[in-house]
Automatic annotation (TrEMBL):
GO terms for biological process: transcription initiation at RNA polymerase III promoter. GO terms for cellular component: transcription factor TFIIIC complex. Residues 1-47 are annotated as: Disordered. Pfam families: DUF5921 (PF19336), TFIIIC_delta (PF12657), zf-TFIIIC (PF12660). PANTHER family: GENERAL TRANSCRIPTION FACTOR 3C POLYPEPTIDE 4, GENERAL TRANSCRIPTION FACTOR 3C POLYPEPTIDE 4 FAMILY. This is Ral transcription factor IIIC subunit 4.
Length: 778
């Protein structure tokens, strides 16, 4: 590989000051100087104004949801290995706001009509005004249209292991959506309607089941019945493992996820989703917690893990100041204990609203015990509370970080696997807080992230950070123009880097999840650097080679393959052909398509050669040799991953086939293919075992058009003697002889759809993510 050159990065900006708010006694924390955020292209324009208080939310599967007044705009970050463009590759979809207005209902309707008449003409102006201005109770005021809030479930709840999306509109319709295929959204359940029906059946009783004494002509009662079903915020729990006892007394492991919905009156309604989701009616009522928090503002799940003991609860904040943790009964979940009483984190009613509650699990470096750090924004301050459970009992410490921002904090974000909290205020200033635990307290190292020029003077509505902390997304609009507010506003989403590609590469290689798709944001930084410099950074290459010598892990091979593919793209010049022309994606056309692409590549290669020779290139080898070398690397990495997976598939076949029984996996073809490499001892042994067991069966595949046998000569496609071409599924190696199949997100592989008559073990094989890029097969 060619030697590395220093990466192109933004010039160091002045004023990158490191501020510490706390004295440093006994604190060994020293914040490393970080580079200023660099703006990434493109800035995405929004079609309608932003709505809701927390308009941005970034999922663990790299989709950014933006609440707007017409729809929930979703942008999916993809590390496109087929593109040589340096900008971010974002796939846009949206969940529209329903056009018909939604009204919450309370019963009995005759009484409601009377009450509405009574309160709209009520003599006491305090009551009358409150009623007339209420968009929920008074039908003659038009409710605002748009999204109020959206939040993503953990990974693995939706189709193909992706995230579910809970959307709440400003007219109080709470629905849960799942993405279907590459571009479609499907509504799974309307929780507002479901809860409304439940309340009606229970005659609007409280949790204690006592029917209400007053009727709707009582203002407080009217308000109570509406507020108890008006959703304010929601939060998804982690995925819990439960046990289900079957009729024959055996236990089956099951998984569930809970969605907590905070209502206007402080009630927390918990919905249970059993996984995998049922097609019909996926949500069931789980529990109701009356928090008693007046004027609630935000909710978040709290998890505390100390060895095998776990506790769960919900942190609820109020607009007037208090924050507390409410116990959630998780008695059926393995290893969970229920907290007996609510834990008060802040009790002063100081009229500073709580928002952006985030929970950060920590291990205490001195006491070696686990603690939980809860942070929340309160005006211009960041509130923190440190909880730890020791044999002496529960200890709670809390305080505020002051002087961080001069304007109210809009958003707080905590990336996964990184001990950092990002805060952003209304003027778009971002700070990075690094908590450091000392013997008796917590200190926060703070760093200013210099504001990029493009955002200067713009009004920021929110910030979200990608799951591994590689990017921040900000949604903004024009500020004052010449001392006046602009007549027409436009809204944009900007992407900023929070890490340098040099910092991202080691994180990528050390990623605890060992899944390329889960590290998409870090991977995109590496992709960007390779495309810019047209070579693999030497540090990354060395570290990758060293790690591969230590451990032959498929994850590292995937990183290697990805980097080589991007390098190949970087050696091309962008094609001038119109990319927007739709391409047919049917099996038969694909081969022709591939030919076209080859021609295109050949043309591009010629062009690239000219460019490189002209610019001197910095590459000592001839460009064609260099490209051939990269192609060899790609082929070798693909082949390695394919062979490893073939062995895995054969191992599963070996375990699951009994006596003369047919399997649709081309077992003999796979064995012949694998045995072509004489140096692979593992596969030799495996093949020996299978041959003994299969007893001369051959499992031939036949072409469905001409019945000729399909030979196993290529692991990506099968061609019969009459020239019919079928693509092979990379998960089961069968030829896909149907017109419908799944493609991975990066579109480098295909997989067949599971059939109802497939045995369980084949269905399980087909559930795996893409072999080459780890992304879900959709
Ligand atoms: Zn044929
Ligand atoms: Zn793939």
């Amino acid at each position: 590989m060619a030697a590395d050159t220093p990466p192109e990065s933004a010039p160091p900006e002045p004023g990158n000051v490191v501020i510490k708010t706390e004295p440093e006694d006994g604190d060994d924390f020293l914040p490393a100087p970080r580079e200023a955020p660099v703006k990434r292209e493109p800035a995405v324009p929004l079609q309608s104004p932003v709505s809701g208080l927390q308009p941005l939310s970034w999922s663990l599967d790299h989709r950014l949801a933006v609440c707007t007044s017409s729809a929930l705009a979703v942008m999916e970050l993809r590390c496109d290995v087929q593109s040589s463009k340096q900008e971010l590759s974002l796939h846009r979809t949206h969940v529209p706001v329903p056009s018909e207005a939604h009204r919450l209902r309370v019963e009995p309707s005759a009484e409601l009509a009377l009450a509405r008449e009574k309160f709209s003409l009520y003599p006491d102006p305090m009551v009358r005004q409150a009623f007339l201005a209420d968009t929920v109770m008074n039908p003659s005021v038009r409710a605002h249209k748009g999204m109020k809030y959206a939040c993503w479930s953990p990974l693995g709840c939706g189709e193909s292991g992706r995230c579910l999306l809970a959307c709440l509109t400003l007219d109080n319709r709470l629905t849960v959506h799942s993405s279907h295929g590459h571009l479609e959204w499907k509504a799974l359940v309307n929780l507002t309607q479901k809860y409304g029906e439940r309340l009606k059946e229970r005659r609007y009783a409280r949790k204690d089941d006592k029917p209400p004494e007053a009727n709707l002509l009582d203002y407080a009662e009217l308000q109570r019945r509406f507020r108890m079903q008006t959703p304010l915020r929601m939060a998804w729990s982690r995925i819990y493992a439960t046990k289900k006892v079957q009729p024959d007394n055996s236990c089956v492991d099951e998984e569930m996820v809970l969605l907590a919905v905070l209502m206007e009156n402080g009630d927390l309604v918990l919905w249970k989703f059993m996984l995998p989701l049922a097609h019909k009616d996926p949500a069931a009522f789980y529990d109701l917690i009356e928090s008693g928090v007046s004027r609630p503002s935000d909710v978040a799940w709290w998890e505390y893990e100390n060895g095998p003991r776990r506790m769960g609860g919900l942190v609820v904040g109020s607009e007037v100041g208090p924050i507390k943790i409410l116990p959630v009964s998780l008695s059926k979940v393995k290893g969970y204990f229920t907290v007996r009483h609510p834990i008060v984190l802040w009790k002063e009613c100081d009229e500073i609203a709580v928002d952006n509650i985030r929970v950060v699990p920590l291990t205490h470096p001195v006491h070696k015990s686990s603690c939980s750090l809860i942070v929340a924004s309160r005006g211009c301050y960041v509130f923190w509370s440190l909880l730890s459970v020791s044999p002496a009992g529960l200890s709670v410490q809390n305080s505020h970080i002051a002087g961080l921002h001069s304007l109210p904090v809009l958003s707080l974000a905590v990336p996964q696997h990184e001990l950092a909290i990002y805060s952003c205020s209304m003027d778009g200033r971002i700070k990075r807080l690094t908590p450091a635990l000392t013997e008796s307290s917590v200190t926060f190292g703070t760093e200013d992230a210099v504001q990029p020029e493009t955002l200067a003077g713009r009004r920021v509505h929110g910030m979200a950070v990608s799951c591994n902390g590689a990017y921040a997304a900000l949604v903004s609009t024009q500020g004052m123009v010449g001392g006046f507010h602009p007549i027409n506003r436009s809204y944009q989403v900007h992407f900023l880097t929070l890490k340098t590609p040099e910092a991202a590469a080691p994180l990528l290689l050390r990623s605890p999840e060992q899944n390329l798709h889960n590290a998409t944001d870090l991977l995109d930084l590496v992709r960007w650097q390779v495309l810019k410099s047209k070579r693999v950074p030497a540090a990354l290459q060395e570290e990758l080679d060293r790690k591969l010598l230590e451990e032959d892990s498929p994850y590292l091979w995937r990183v290697k393959l990805f980097v080589a593919r991007v390098l190949q793209q970087s050696l091309k010049v962008p094609s001038t052909e119109d990319k927007w022309r739709p391409r047919q994606r049917e099996t038969k056309v694909l081969v022709q398509d591939l030919k076209e692409e080859e021609e295109e590549v050949a043309m591009e290669k010629d062009a690239a050669e000219v460019v490189e020779l002209e610019s001197g290139g910095g590459v000592e080898k001839k460009p064609e040799d260099y490209r051939a070398e990269v192609q060899t690397l790609i082929n070798a990495a693909e082949m390695h991953l394919m062979r490893e997976n073939m062995k895995k598939v054969l191992g599963v076949v070996y375990l699951n086939t009994w006596l003369p029984q047919n399997t649709c996996i081309p077992t003999c073809g796979l064995m012949d293919y694998l045995s072509r490499d004489p140096d692979d001892r593992d596969s030799e042994v495996l093949i020996g075992h299978i041959k003994k067991k299969l007893n001369k069966q051959t499992f031939p595949e036949r072409c469905s058009l001409c019945q000729a046998p399909l030979p196993f000569t290529d692991c990506k496609q099968a061609v019969c003697e009459n020239g019919h071409v079928w693509l092979r599924c990379v998960l089961s190696y069968q030829a896909c002889q149907t017109l419908t199949f799944r493609r991975c997100l990066l579109q480098d592989c295909i997989a067949r759809l599971p059939e109802p008559e497939d045995p369980e073990w084949i269905k399980k094989l087909l559930k795996a993510p893409c072999l080459l890029c780890d992304s879900p097969m959709i």
